[in-house]
Amino acid sequence: RRSSRVFCYIIILLYAERRRKRRRFWVHPIITRREEHGEFYRLIQELKMYHERFRGYFRMSVSEFENLLQQLAPSLTKEQTHYRKPIDPEQRLAVCLRFLSTGDSYRTIASSFRLGVSTVASIVRETCDALWHCLRDEHLPVPTEEMWRSTARRFHERWNFPNCLGAMDGKHIFIQAPANSGSLYFNYKGTFSVVLLALVDADYRFLVVDVGSYGSNSDGGIFANFGLGKALRDGTLNVPPPSELPGAPELGKANHVIVADEAFPLKPYLLWPYPGRRLPTDKRIFNYRLSRARRISENVFGILSQRLRVFQRTLQVQPSVVDKVVKAACLLCNYLRPKGEDQNHATEDDHDCEQPLQGFEHCRGQRASVEAQNVRELYKEYFNSPAGEVAWQYEHVNHAL
């Protein structure tokens, strides 16, 4: 009886093996004609002769593409084997940039470039890794004291906010709900996401980024566990010591601060607006001046979404790949915006995504230390003094009433 059961089991396995779909091709005929009809070998080579169309296709110029390729080529070059010809670095970079600039699915890009879907997935993942490792030291280095001083100087020159180390905000990157993740990635907007927390400078460049936190977490909670938040608490971030505000030595020395919105805690190194309605004029002026500097972070997120439109769609990839994509995208934005770039040279994408100043009627009050409140009071006093005021602030505040 036992032998008959074993025999039946073998028969069932053989039947299942026969019914299993066999692989028809080692390489599909469509893919074998890649060099004849693939998008990289035909359309992209023609686009190099029409620079405006090339910029619209890849969201960068021909020279920027070639310079980027030169830096990434050693990391993207694959070893030649006897089985098949490897995909060259230029085509790998083109596939990745096309994914970032459009957000098209892997299947759509695979059809256009005549590649396998799994091949496109591995190319995007590996190229994003290469972008991060090759460009990080140059375009997103660990801030030094001199970098902080330069950032504070630029914020004073461009946005009339002295001793400012940067503007900070969070952005939800929408993703397809990962399997068996429950509500970890479910955010207050009713979608699934991971959070990009970024500190940006006065010239629309990323200074520090943190990505990968669950969408269900708040910006303040992420900041508390963020390396930047811990380093600021511990005083290990090379932040310059307190210094006098320009033209107001009588106010004493003021901390260098980061500007943010009410989602973050009020700290001696982190300022956000006064909450509530019907505020006195001096507090409304402080809120206006802080918002004028803080909105740079929102503008940067707008520039990121306009330049790399993958962020205008829901990413259909695993969270680990989302992290790689977001970090590579932040580096690319810095790469495409040279240091100290003047506002007059902003691109059309940049102007399309500048955000208007917002009101503060819905700001929530939070408990803060006396030291943090004193720092905010000092800046409020400075912005209402002859040394710190700007001509248009009273008109703007009165007009907003």
UniProtKB/TrEMBL annotation:
It is found in: Nucleus. Its main location: nucleus. GO terms for cellular component: nucleus. Keywords: Hydrolase, Metal-binding, Nuclease, Nucleus. Its cofactor is a divalent metal cation. InterPro entries: HARBI1-like, HARBI1_dom. The keyword Membrane does not apply. Belongs to the HARBI1 family. Residues 168-334 form the DDE Tnp4 domain. It comes from Oryzias sinensis (Chinese medaka). GO terms for molecular function: hydrolase activity; metal ion binding; nuclease activity. This is DDE Tnp4 domain-containing protein. The keyword Ubl conjugation does not apply. It holds the Pfam family DDE_Tnp_4.
